[in-house]
Amino acid sequence: MEISIDIKFDQLIDLLDKLTPQQFEQVKRYVNTNSPKNQQTRSDKNRLLEVLKNAPVLTEKEIQKIEEARSKIMLWRKE
Q: Residue 13 domain-assigned?
């Protein structure tokens, strides 16, 4: 069963103003957890987390080579 109601934004604001503080908090929690933007953000965070989990990791030897290269570049710049 599906019900469709056509109300204007001002009417929605009026309805929200009539809610008790507890009811308003329920609506607020619902909107914050179910908004499309929030769901997109969660999806983006999950994708980023997966990328980071599967990303390559540098070995200590590779880190040492990078540090040595940086040191040589810094010396070269000072010349």
A: no
Residue listed under structure tokens 């980071």: 52
Any domain includes 1: no
How far apart CA 54 and CA 45 sit, in angstroms, is 14
Domain with 56 in it: 25-78
Q: Tokens for 75?
A: 């010396």
- Let me know if residue 70 belongs to a domain: yes
Q: Are 77 and 71 in contact (CB under 8 A)?
A: no
In a domain, 16, yes or no: no
- pTM (predicted TM-score): 0.42
Provide the number of structural domains found in the chain: 1
Block mean pLDDT (10 aa), the chain, length 79: 84 93 92 74 82 91 96 90
Would you give the distance in Å from CA 5 to the centre of its chain?
32
One-letter amino acid identity for 79?
E
